[in-house]
Amino acid sequence: MRIAVLDDDPIFLKLVEATIHQMGHATILFETGEDLLRAMRRESFDLLIVDWLLPGLSGIEVVRALRDAGGSKLPILFASQRHEEQDIVAAFNAGADDFMVKPLRVQELMARVTALMRRAYPDVSTMRLDFSPYRLDPVARTVYLNNQPIELKHREYELAEFLFQNCGRLLSRNHLTEAVWGNITPTPSRTLDTHASRLRTKLQLGQFHGDGQIYQLSAIYGLGYRLEILSAPEKVVEPA
């Protein structure tokens, strides 16, 4: 998972970064709300951890701006020294999903991040995913189209699963490469494009398959990719 952390305290950022990395997730750190909002125009994240008191835009203003811009499903955890009831209510009213009072306790932070992730992104490691006419089997690491298995290479399956799991979301190029290839070594941009092109062909994306939905993989210039559902063509009824 890819988590953005917004706070102007370097010590707090290092603590959260170390904790999140211990959980096996990637972190991207921001010190101002303006920087985070600019990044959100070209990047995608799975969860945000936001401080209240910041230089420039406050955490409340940042969360409102994100929700107003359409980020209604992105889990947001507020972390603040403010602890009065009215402050917590204000954070939730602005669009926060959870609230923690500083100083943070590491185990509690882990538990809250895990809970938010579990609610927003159910674990699919041991279940089949049905996206008629496609079906993904994470155990067999196989994609089926109309119950027919499609031969995919390792990274192709990883990319397909991540795209279907996040169907409808615009995923940045960095987000996709980190999720599929990891961030140990830089992945050339053309590698992602090549795999996306292969998936379009092998999965016959963009085509109508019987009564199922039409899934289209769109490249958004300068941003990334989105797997989206299109309306199936209407059946034409011939006159009697």
From TrEMBL:
<protein>
    <submittedName>
        <fullName>Response regulator transcription factor</fullName>
    </submittedName>
</protein>
<dbReference type="Pfam" id="PF00486">
    <property type="entry name" value="Trans_reg_C"/>
</dbReference>
<dbReference type="InterPro" id="IPR001789">
    <property type="entry name" value="Sig_transdc_resp-reg_receiver"/>
</dbReference>
<keyword id="KW-0597">Phosphoprotein</keyword>
<dbReference type="InterPro" id="IPR039420">
    <property type="entry name" value="WalR-like"/>
</dbReference>
<keyword id="KW-0902">Two-component regulatory system</keyword>
<dbReference type="InterPro" id="IPR001867">
    <property type="entry name" value="OmpR/PhoB-type_DNA-bd"/>
</dbReference>
<keyword id="KW-0238">DNA-binding</keyword>
<feature type="domain" description="Response regulatory">
    <location>
        <begin position="2"/>
        <end position="117"/>
    </location>
</feature>
<feature type="modified residue" description="4-aspartylphosphate">
    <location>
        <position position="51"/>
    </location>
</feature>
<feature type="DNA-binding region" description="OmpR/PhoB-type">
    <location>
        <begin position="126"/>
        <end position="229"/>
    </location>
</feature>
<feature type="domain" description="OmpR/PhoB-type">
    <location>
        <begin position="126"/>
        <end position="229"/>
    </location>
</feature>
<dbReference type="Pfam" id="PF00072">
    <property type="entry name" value="Response_reg"/>
</dbReference>
